[in-house]
Amino acid sequence: MDYQIALIPGDGIGREVIPAGVKVLEVLAKEFQFGLQLTEFPFSCAYYRQHGEMMPADGLEQLRPFQAILLGAVGAPNVADHVSLWGLLLPIRRQFEQYVNLRPVRLLNGISSPLAGRTAADIDFLVVRENTEGEYSDIGGRLFTGTDREVVVQESVFTRKGVDRVIRFACETAMNRPARHLTSATKSNGIRFTMPYWDERFRAVTADYPDLRCDQFHIDILTAHFVQHPDWFDVVVGSNLFGDILSDLGPAVAGGIGVAPSANLNVEREFPSMFEPVHGSAPDIAGQGVANPIATFWSIQMMLDFLGEAPAGAALMAAVEKVTGDGFLTRDLGGSETTDSFTERVIGSLS
Ligand code: ATP
Ligand code: MG
């Protein structure tokens, strides 16, 4: 097979970890004999400062023919977060109906959890976040601004299509894992309309999967359980807001932001899916060559898995864990490897 992949290195350490990712991808392509056509796009905050927009007006059209997008990070100290969010990330996620945000949480060999005594056997779950609707809507407004009658309303939008499809993806994913256990994040004791509806659809969709063990927790206690009982979880599905919270908390118990990967999936493959490390552009360390490339490598594993090259992805993560297991870590994890030296070690362990 021949894969067309769009690369958006973006800003800051995105410009360091994506080239590292390209190096390992090229080695994997040779070893596992698949074709790669990588096309780089300059869309970024740097592009914004030159052109007044994060990408050209036809940027989405340029990306549409690709099977996957590999993104580094976008963001810069002098550009407001909403510019990169609304100018690039959200248009890509929404136009290409990347309705699943998938974040694996697993403690890798040689990396320690901030949770004392927890090992790889305890921390291995997936967070499935709804990525297109829910609480993050632009419906709402403000009245009587600046007076003491000031009132602000923010609507949430939950559609049957939107809720069902993400829960169904979570069911299918859980069915393919040994534990076959799916947990729903809810808050139907406090939120009167949307969350009872979420629960209702969770019951309806999971009814098609009698072999799945299903449960649900309110988001408040669920966050506590993530810390106190990470071993309880296998696949956890949540709305856009609850999934957002859980998908930052999850990686935090598994060694931090330098290793956390993510995928934004258009499950039906009508449009490109996007794979990206969870971390941002990290301007404080950009340009020093010390960024941890594991989050990018793991995102590439997810991309290869989605494209149908699972053995290549598995080989990549085995190589990463060989290196971390031997004690070679980047600075964020307490080691002294650079982006390049770590990448070379991974490539060395691949072949
Ligand atoms: P942005 O504005 O793009 O979100 P940020 O500064 O918020 O960028 P984060 O990704 O949120 O960056 O990271 C917070 C901090 O974690 C960084 O400042 C950096 O010190 C550290 N960090 C993040 N990613 C990495 C990485 N891959 N390797 C090493 N350290 C990292
Ligand atoms: Mg940030």
Concise description?
The protein has 351 residues and is of the alpha/beta class. It has helices spanning 14-32, 45-51, 59-63, 81-95, 160-175, 194-206, 219-228, 240-252, 294-307, 310-325, 339-350; strands at residues 2-10, 35-40, 68-73, 100-106, 124-130, 140-143, 151-154, 181-186, 213-218, 235-238, 261-265, 273-277.
Question: What attributes does this structure have?
Answer:
single chain; 351 residues; alpha/beta; Isopropylmalate Dehydrogenase; 10-stranded mixed sheet; globular; binds magnesium ion; D-malate dehydrogenase (decarboxylating) (NAD+) activity
Structure, explained:
- Strand 8 (181-186), helix 6 and strand 9 (213-218) form a beta-alpha-beta unit.
- The strands form two sheets. The protein has a ten-stranded mixed sheet with strand order 2-1-3-12-11-4-5-10-8-9, with helices on both faces.
- The chain is globular, with a radius of gyration of 20 Å.
- Helices cover 40% and strands 20% of the residues.
- It folds into two domains: 1-102 and 256-350, Isopropylmalate Dehydrogenase (3-Layer(aba) Sandwich); 113-254, Isopropylmalate Dehydrogenase.
- Helix 1 packs parallel to helix 11, helix 7 (219-228) packs parallel to helix 8 (240-252) and helix 9 runs antiparallel to helix 10 (310-325).
- The longest helix has 19 residues, at 14-32.
- It is an alpha/beta fold and 351 residues long.
- Bound molecules: adenosine-5'-triphosphate and magnesium ion.
- Residues 13, 73, 75, 257-258, 279-285, 291-292, 295, 332 line the site of adenosine-5'-triphosphate (ATP).
